[in-house]
Amino acid sequence: MAGIGADDKAMIPGVEIYDVRTTALITSFAGPVGRLHFDRDRLYASSPGGLQIWDTQSGENTGTVPGFVPTHYHPGSHELAAIDETALVTWPTR
Fold first, then answer.
1. Is the pTM here over 0.70, yes or no?
2. How many Cβ atoms are within 10 Å of 6's Cβ, its own excluded?
């Protein structure tokens, strides 16, 4: 279960971001749903309606890509990828 809150019955859609070295909570914000991908200071959420782009510092949704629901992220090329009926579709994060 993903979301914000300790009680899985009362969670709201969103993310909590932790420092992996110290396990300290860095920030949390409501909104992102779906498979998550991260690149630099942006969080990408593959929501059912399309890609959502979130600023991890402010927690703001800074953009959307309707209809594009990526399933993978390539850290070397900084691209998100999805397979549709006929092709591999990529989208650069930088």
1. yes
2. 6
